[in-house]
């Protein structure tokens, strides 16, 4: 009788343990499933590859370099076009009309010119955003240095003033557009008369000085930009450092000399009515 009671008690304990084990396993399974569902619902869907790449520091450096190349090309073409002012009013006014007639009659008049302007605005905005984002990322992780040794002899002053020279020229660019395209600075402006508009604008001494200072800032910015874009793109073999330095200095110097000559020529009476 005593043995039967013991067997009955053991059977009851086993049944309770089994029920408890099953219940615990079910609860664990439910918890795991619920956790997996929650994790899946909270997981962010990846953006397209270009967006994900741009979010990285490497992507921003590539964007900085590529948009920098585009803007350097525009600055060079803009300077070369403005050199036509030395040939006289007819030549530079004809050049301005030529820009408005690009791809006519394939496209309506001025359409391609506005497409080019839209591309430049996009490149300019991406360049500024990438520069700002990289600055924020560098401030947040100062312990992460450059992977390659930097040549401070070539890019010391220019690199340390890069932010300010960029801001100076960006502000000047807005003013310049108002001055020679949007008629907002007080100078007499006549549509289609590029030669007269340049003369009316740069014959004002404060404007000429502003033009010179802004282009000196642009030259410093271009020097470091032309130097560092090779590093950003991975084209930084030490054997080519002298060529990189010469290219950066030569390109920046050419742009500064060409652009600064315009206000000097107007004030000296070489160009103008």
Give the topology, please.
Layout: H1 2-42, H2 49-55, H3 57-82, H4 89-100, H5 111-140, H6 152-160, H7 162-180, H8 194-202, H9 205-232, H10 241-267
Helix pairs in contact: 2-3, 3-5, 3-9, 3-10, 6-9, 7-9, 9-10
Walk me through what this model shows.
Helix 2 packs across helix 3 (57-82), helix 3 (57-82) crosses helix 5 and helix 7 (162-180) packs across helix 9 (205-232). Residues 1-6 and 22-28 have low confidence and may be disordered. This protein has helices at 2-42, 49-55, 57-82, 89-100, 111-140, 152-160, 162-180, 194-202, 205-232, 241-267. With 273 residues, the protein is mostly helical. The protein has 2 domains: 1-43; 50-267, 3 helical TM bundles of succinate and fumarate reductases (Up-down Bundle), CATH 1.20.1300.10.
What's the SSE pattern?
Answer: HHHHHHHHHH
How many strand units? 0
Overall spatial form: globular
CATH superfamily of the largest domain: Fumarate reductase/succinate dehydrogenase, transmembrane subunit
Beta-strand portion reads: under 5%
Average of per-residue pLDDT values: 82
Provide a quick synopsis of the model.
The protein is mostly helical and 273 residues long. The chain has helices spanning 2-42, 49-55, 57-82, 89-100, 111-140, 152-160, 162-180, 194-202, 205-232, 241-267.
Features:
273 residues; mainly alpha; 3 helical TM bundles of succinate and fumarate reductases; 2 domains; 10 helices
């Amino acid at each position: 009788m005593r043995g039967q009671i013991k067997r009955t008690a053991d059977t009851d304990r086993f049944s309770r343990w089994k029920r408890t084990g099953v219940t615990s396993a079910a609860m664990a399974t439910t918890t795991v499933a619920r956790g997996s569902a929650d994790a899946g619902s909270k997981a962010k869907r990846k953006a397209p590859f270009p967006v994900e790449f741009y979010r990285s520091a490497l992507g921003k450096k590539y964007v900085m370099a590529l948009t920098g190349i585009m803007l350097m090309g525009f600055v060079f073409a803009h300077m070369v076009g403005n050199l036509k002012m030395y040939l006289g009013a007819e030549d530079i006014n004809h050049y301005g009309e030529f820009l408005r007639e690009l791809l006519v009659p394939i496209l309506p008049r001025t359409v391609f010119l506005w497409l080019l302007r839209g591309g430049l605005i996009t490149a300019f905005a991406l360049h500024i955003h990438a520069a700002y984002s990289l600055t924020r990322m560098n401030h947040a992780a100062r312990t992460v240095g450059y992977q390659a040794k930097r040549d401070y002899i070539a890019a010391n002053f220019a690199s340390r003033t890069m932010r300010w020279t960029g801001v100076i020229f960006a502000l000047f660019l807005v003013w310049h557009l108002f001055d020679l395209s949007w008629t907002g600075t007080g100078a007499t402006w006549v549509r289609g008369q590029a030669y007269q508009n340049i003369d009316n604008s740069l014959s004002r001494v404060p404007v000429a000085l502003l033009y010179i200072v802004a282009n000196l800032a642009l030259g410093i910015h271009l020097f470091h930009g032309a130097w560092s874009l090779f590093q950003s793109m991975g084209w930084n073999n030490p054997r080519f450092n002298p060529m990189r330095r010469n290219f950066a200095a030569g390109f920046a110097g050419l742009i500064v000399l060409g652009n600064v000559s315009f206000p000097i020529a107007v004030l000296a009476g070489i160009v103008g009515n």
